[in-house]
Write a structure and sequence with these properties.
By secondary structure, the protein is mainly beta. The chain contains 4 helices and 25 strands. A hairpin with a 5-residue loop joins strand 7 and strand 8. The strands form 8 sheets. It has a 6-stranded antiparallel sheet. It has a 5-stranded antiparallel sheet with strand order 8-7-6-3-9, with no helix packed on it. A 3-stranded antiparallel sheet has the order 13-10-17, with no helix packed on it.
Amino acid sequence: MRDFDLRVTPARADLAAKYLQGKVAAARYVDGRVYEVIAPQTPLRQAPRPDAPLDTEALKGERVTVYDENEEGWAWGQLAADNYVGWLPRGALAPPGAPPTHHVAALRTFAFPGLSIKLPPVEALPLGAKLAVARFEDRMAVTKTGLYVPAVHLKPVGDNEPDFVAVAERFLGAPYLWGGKTALGLDCSGLLQIALAACGLPCPRDTDMQERALGVAVGDSSSLEFRRGDLVFWKGHVAIVRDLADFLHANAFHMAVVSEPIAEAIARIRAAGSEVTSVRRFEAASGAVASARLVI
């Protein structure tokens, strides 16, 4: 049996996905059932408890394959977008509805129960949430479940942002939250993942996965002339280069997404005992980030 990364492999000693039979040892193997996230955002935790560590978040419209449920209202499954495995609140999931037609392109937006924006909103939707829109009415998108969302805050699925750095810059000032993926709170790898996703680029969830999968390694951080969009990695951390002098990152030192001088930040992190492990760069013949090559 080969070793598998259990963060992205639905396997436990007592149960594993049917497709892993013969590859991992488990007491039994089951076919999963696909669900859709219906909450604006929902936690994926290491254990089926509300106080268990937050590994990541799933956003509205994401698909999840569920392999197990318990009596306390938790479902154990795997996210379709990045393959992450963990426990989600069962109430945040439902059988899949109509395929999403649009995604939230604003940092956050509201969903209303009717046409008037004076009505109390029923949901606050984060950037990246996906919706199935039935029609448009008086500058509002009406979803197939009857929610009214400002049309100006949506884009059709496939209409991607051109610059993931610009997307990340919109999160400046957002609080740091381990495992978070929205403007309410996010971590360094979540910031990179959600920014790349807005450009239609797949991205693993954790920094070690990202360092292996994204772009190509370039130069040494002490002598390299940085380019916008370069990724600077440490063990357990990543920053996104804005220009020759500055990068931005969600970090626990500032407890926020901040922009700071590259040289000063590298020196500060070195003083705390961590050295840069690599700088990685997207290759794109056209220069457009949206056409960057991912090595996966």
